[in-house]
Amino acid sequence: MIQLERVTVIYNRGTLDEKVALKNVDLLVEEGQFVVIVGANGAGKSTLMKVVVGEVKPTFGVCRIMGQVLREEKIFKCGSIVCQDPNLGIFPNLSIEENLMLARKKGFRGLSFGRVDPRAIELLRSCELGLEENLKKKASKLSGGQKQALAMVMAVSSNPKLLLLDEHTASLDPKSTEKIMELTDRINKTLGTTILMITHDMNIAEQYGDTVIVMEDGKIIARIDKSKQKVQASQLKSMIKSKLTATT
Ligand SMILES: Nc1ncnc2c1ncn2[C@@H]1O[C@H](COP(=O)(O)OP(=O)(O)OP(=O)(O)O)[C@@H](O)[C@H]1O
């Protein structure tokens, strides 16, 4: 699904502000995988995500999405993105229902505009945030957690093969974070959507996803495949910490 081969990204190359943000990064994400990226500030997580999206072109190396060398329009056809700010994924002046219809217009197959897809309602109901009971409510009136749940359901309305999540729980309280992470997991497990997620939250990395990628100073310093390595959730945090401290 995603393949990075020896990807190096140098910002402001050849100037005094030159910064090597990614150094020879190799990464393979298979279809249906849920991959979590962790690492300190400046480790290169967002740059890696921007390479996958096509926003940043590798200075050296190659990024392939579904076997094809990336061109910007490709990723947006097969992928959706949800970022940190819940307001960015929704249309605040429209109702929940109108937001869902608009998202569906963009991509849902086989259904005419004017009806909310029952699958979207089912996903909303599964969040237990009361969204499905208030479909006429304006999105601007929702809580942060409710907005992000709506943004997530909208993001998967176009049946993307790939969902990119850039610290999508960072601005939420613990209860909303739990609901959004449960929804994220459900999307991966029930829709089969491949997920690449950045987080600073070690508890999330411990609890969710099949694989944890640890980044430091532009490099992937560890890849922990939870099932293959039979890693218990409780062991993971200390494993990540030991990888990070081992290189400092
Ligand atoms: N557009 C840019 N121009 C120059 N340098 C940049 C640019 N974007 C990022 N950088 C630098 O590249 C390095 C990697 O940044 P990046 O944002 O990818 O890290 P990150 O792991 O996502 O950090 P954070 O967790 O703080 O978001 C940092 O040193 C950052 O200052």
UniProtKB/TrEMBL annotation:
Signal peptide: none annotated. SMART domains: AAA. GO terms for cellular component: plasma membrane. Residues 2-242 form the ABC transporter domain. The keyword ATP-binding applies. Keywords: ATP-binding, Nucleotide-binding. InterPro entries: AAA+_ATPase (IPR003593), ABC_transporter-like_ATP-bd (IPR003439), ABC_transporter-like_CS (IPR017871), ABC_transpr_LolD-like (IPR015854), P-loop_NTPase (IPR027417). One of its GO terms (molecular function) is ATP hydrolysis activity. Pfam families: ABC_tran (PF00005). The keyword ATP-binding applies. Transmembrane segments: none annotated. PANTHER family: ABC TRANSPORTER DOMAIN-CONTAINING PROTEIN, IMPORT ATP-BINDING PROTEIN. This is ATP-binding cassette domain-containing protein. It comes from Pseudothermotoga hypogea.
